[in-house]
Amino acid sequence: MGREFKSENGSPASKQNVTYETVTEHNKRDDQWIVINNKVYDVTKFAKKHPGGAKILNHYAGEDATDAWVAFHNDKEKVTKYLNALYIGDLIDPPLTSLKEDFRSLRKLVEDNGWLKPEPLFFICHFLHVVLFEAAAVCLLRYFGTSWPMVLLAVLFMTISQAQAGWTQHDYGHHSVFPDMKRSHIFHHLTVGFMKGASSHWWNFRHFQHHAKPNIIRKDPDIEVAYLFLIGDKLPVEFGKKKKGFMPYQWQHRYFFLVGPPLLLPLYFHFEILYFCIKRRDWLDLALSIGFFLRFFYLFTPFFGGWGTFSFYMGIRFVESHWFTWVTQMSHLPNVVDRDSKDMDWFSLQLRSSCNVHQSWFNDWFTGHLNYQIEHHLFPTMPRCNFHKVAPLVQSLCKKHGIEYCSKTLFTACADIVSMLKKSGQLWYDAYNE
Questions:
Q1: What domain of life (predicted)?
Q2: C-alpha to C-alpha distance for 124 and 132, rounded to whole angstroms
Q3: Cβ 396 vs Cβ 389: under 8 Å
Q4: Which of 115, 279, 328, 334 is most buried (CB neighbours < 10 A)?
């Protein structure tokens, strides 16, 4: 049985002799065990110190988190040193399947081929084109004036700059630009804060939860929208039978065009980021966000004055919000939305909740390579310019194990959001009126 000792939360454990059934019992907020590479760790107290946030560890409590841990961490040797203090014992009956083995072999192939290594030239060129579009907007107004055609063209240039800056900060946030965490964190703060006016810690808090458990109710913040919309097949029926809901959801596929894409960036994100920074006393991110607005008003107040610049800014955010909403939601919302499934492996979870949009130079640029959503979710630290290399191998693995690999046209992917909203709204309405 091995020697007895106390785990981090004081419960006894037997070193070298921990069963998976025992692990699954430790799945509460005040009692969290996880499995990584067949080693069991008590992360109950460490969760609050976890750089990626406590909730990610909470979401995997009582589970095998190996593939998620490998996917998120570039600096595995450094992180493993922290895990040593949390070690309980070895797992004697790992829940290994042929699919898990095949995916881990694919992961090894990806690493051996160097597809996870940063591609400096690609990211330098992308960063420069973000800056050039902003500079073009300023030069346009300076040399050609503020007639309506020039203002609209400047809005277009700034929208492109801001949308592409959003994809850039996404790269830094996923640590796919630099091999070390320090530079990744610094540049993420600068790009999402000083270039976008948002918060790095706020983005990490939301986005890594989304990646850890995509489309899982109460674990993916991107689908926690029941105050406006109900999505999927199960949640609308649950709400309908319990007579719950705040909106006439049977019409949500229509009012989505009024309160979804138009308002997400201009209103909701501004208030949420401000609330997040103040609540957590995140003064650095708040200062960088303020720095963005100071820079923006410094550049454009000479052309429009104070309120005119504010209107110019909101116009940019209004257009960008449509771009951002459709691109980020088209690959997830129409897919399966469900409660957590403890026995679902990493590969199956990501494929079930994600779909791709067909590859083209425009789709790659327009979506920031999020048209490769499946590959991005399987390998979140992979530089996006390498997604096309691994995509055929992922398709082969799906074919071998009978898993659907879904890829659509850009139009179909966006249209499916509306179709899903219509179907889900009708499910709620029918259940509510039974």
A1: Eukaryota
A2: 12
A3: no
A4: 334
Q: Give yes or no for a contact between 146 and 304, defined as CB atoms under 8 angstroms apart.
A: yes
Among all chains, which residue has been given the structure tokens 């689908």?
223
Backbone angles phi, psi at 196, to 5 degrees: -120, -20
Contacts of 117 (CB under 8 A, 6+ apart): 179, 383
pTM above 0.90, yes or no: yes
As beta bridge partners, residue 338 has 216
Long-range contacts of 428-432 (CB under 8 A, 24+ apart): 428/230, 428/236, 428/237, 428/239, 428/240, 428/245, 428/249, 428/250, 429/240, 429/249, 429/250, 430/240, 431/236, 431/237, 431/238, 431/239, 431/240, 431/241, 432/239, 432/240, 432/241, 432/243, 432/245
How far apart CA 295 and CA 399 sit, in angstroms, is: 51
